[in-house]
């Protein structure tokens, strides 16, 4: 069976998704960091792919990212460019599908070499279950490589395991779903870890 591909399906959104708003609240840490909030608004096109992103932060400037998509028909490969509010190119990338459950995405910043390479592994529903991410500095030298595993747990929990191969360190984040909409999409959750 052919697995469908789109940003909405990768992130496990159900139903016809037009926009998604995520709010992140960070509490002070023992290091003396100040609490802050981040607000992200993602807009999706009819195919379920992100076409623009608005980010706001209580202690940061308003940021707008317009994402222009160029979809290759037939195999779901997607090229994209991201522009800021002054319409200057900031980042660009291309997602290529190796098969129905495996893709690679190459990301570059304007004026730089490749800054990030991701390999995504999907489960049978088309949802992302593992992501291997490699980042490079502006000179193209490896700066970090990590694996991210997403696993559903019982009672509405999602376990995210982040394994930093470069630093040989593993962290686990447990997401507790507090509220969902009529489609079962998470509308409120709490993270610990």
How would you sum up this structure in a few lines?
With 193 residues, the chain is mostly beta strands. It has one helix at residues 7-10; strands at residues 19-26, 36-44, 50-57, 60-71, 78-83, 89-99, 102-109, 114-122, 128-136, 142-152, 157-164, 169-180, 186-192.
Poorly predicted regions: none
Please state the CA-atom Rg, rounded to the nearest Å.
17 Å
Total DSSP helices: 1
Alpha-beta classification: mainly beta
Overall pLDDT = 80
Oligomer: single chain
In one word, what is the shape?
globular
Strand order of the largest sheet: 1-2-3-4-5-6-7-8-9-10-11-12-13
Report how far apart the termini are.
36 Å
Write a structural description.
- The chain is mostly beta strands.
- Helices cover 2% and strands 61% of the residues.
- The chain has one helix and 13 strands.
- The chain has one helix at residues 7-10, and strands at residues 19-26, 36-44, 50-57, 60-71, 78-83, 89-99, 102-109, 114-122, 128-136, 142-152, 157-164, 169-180, 186-192.
- Strands 1-2-3-4-5-6-7-8-9-10-11-12-13 form a 13-stranded antiparallel β-sheet.
- The protein is globular.
- 9% of the residues are buried.
- The mean pLDDT is 80.
Q: Top keywords for this entry?
A:
single chain, about 190 residues, mainly beta, 13 strands, globular
What topology does this entry show?
Blueprint: H1 7-10, E1 19-26, E2 36-44, E3 50-57, E4 60-71, E5 78-83, E6 89-99, E7 102-109, E8 114-122, E9 128-136, E10 142-152, E11 157-164, E12 169-180, E13 186-192
Antiparallel strand pairs: 1-2, 2-3, 3-4, 4-5, 5-6, 6-7, 7-8, 8-9, 9-10, 10-11, 11-12, 12-13
């Amino acid at each position: 069976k052919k697995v469908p591909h789109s940003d909405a399906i990768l992130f496990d959104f159900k139903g016809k998704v037009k926009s998604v708003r995520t709010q992140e609240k960070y509490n002070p840490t023992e290091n003396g960091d100040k609490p802050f909030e981040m607000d992200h608004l993602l807009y999706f096109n009819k195919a379920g792919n992100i076409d623009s992103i608005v980010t706001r932060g209580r202690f940061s400037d308003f940021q707008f990212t317009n994402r222009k998509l160029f979809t290759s028909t037939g195999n779901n490969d997607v090229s994209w460019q991201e522009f800021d509010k002054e319409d200057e190119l900031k980042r660009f990338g291309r997602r290529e599908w190796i098969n129905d459950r495996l893709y690679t995405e190459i990301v570059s910043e304007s004026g730089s070499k490749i800054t990030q390479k991701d390999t995504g592994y999907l489960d049978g529903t088309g949802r992302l279950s593992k992501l291997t991410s490699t980042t490079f500095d502006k000179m193209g030298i490896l700066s970090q490589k990590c694996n991210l595993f997403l696993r559903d747990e019982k009672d509405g929990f999602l376990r995210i395991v982040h394994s930093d191969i470069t630093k040989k360190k593993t962290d686990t984040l447990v997401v507790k779903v507090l509220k969902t909409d009529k489609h079962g999409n998470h509308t409120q959750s709490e993270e610990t870890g």
